[in-house]
């Protein structure tokens, strides 16, 4: 029986079956050999003892024409809006004009960025113009530090830069350690420096009182002749006595 099933399967794939399905008059016969085995053939030795077999037409599926290959659809602009730059880039900590006292651990630099960082872009923190390895000040030196953050693309070009933030690092010197009281050793942030009130303008200079004119000079009295003659006589008398 197994041989018959295999034979039927091979027969279903034979060109004779395809010819019958296409309209050709090729008949398959069923016969039994001398050993009692059922045999299917299209050319039996004794057709009078062979039984014609009517085969079912095979199931066929019509082939559809292939769809034309078109160009890929462009991305929807509504789903992926065009990049219009970063709307906000700023350092939020430490604050501008803050003071860091005796930092014993890295001073973190916190950043606010809108919108989110795009693919291929990276953040770079600058300390006095020098790029840092991360986003923290490692063992900063005493003095002022100007911090900025940049967004750079894959080629290293600057895409955006924040406003500068200036902080001051204070460290206790050797001479001050004897006078300083023991602390926790953790860096603290001082309050930002405040500007004093504007200087006031002084009052206008005052002018002295105007000078006054003194009284007019009075003329002296005229010399009299008697006075003149007396003076001459006295002179003559003196000369004679000599």
Structure in words:
This protein is an alpha+beta fold and about 240 residues long. Helix content is about 15%, strand content about 25%. The strands form four sheets. Strands 5, 8, 9, 11, 12, 13 and 14 form a seven-stranded mixed sheet that branches. The protein is rod-shaped and about 205 Å long.
What is the topological layout?
Layout: H1 2-12, H2 15-21, E1 28-32, E2 38-41, E3 51-53, E4 88-93, E5 99-101, E6 107-108, E7 110-114, E8 122-127, E9 130-131, E10 136-137, E11 143-152, E12 158-161, E13 165-170, H3 174-177, E14 188-190, H4 225-241
Parallel strand pairs: 5-13
Antiparallel strand pairs: 1-2, 1-3, 4-7, 5-14, 6-10, 8-9, 8-11, 11-12, 11-13
Low-confidence stretches: 227-242
- End-to-end C-alpha gap: 203 Å
Helical run tally:
4
Question: What class, by secondary structure content?
Answer: alpha+beta
Indicate the CATH class of the domain at 88-173: Mainly Beta
Residue share in β-strands: 25-35%
What summary fits the major beta sheet? 7 strands, mixed
Tell me, rounded to a whole number, the average pLDDT.
Answer: 74
Report the CATH architecture of the domain at 88-173.
Answer: Sandwich
Radius of gyration: 61 Å
Question: Short summary of the structure?
Answer:
The protein has 242 residues and is an alpha+beta fold. The chain has four helices and 14 strands.
Descriptive keywords:
242 residues, alpha+beta, Immunoglobulin-like, 7-stranded mixed sheet, 3-stranded antiparallel sheet, 4 helices, 14 strands, 16% helix, disordered C terminus
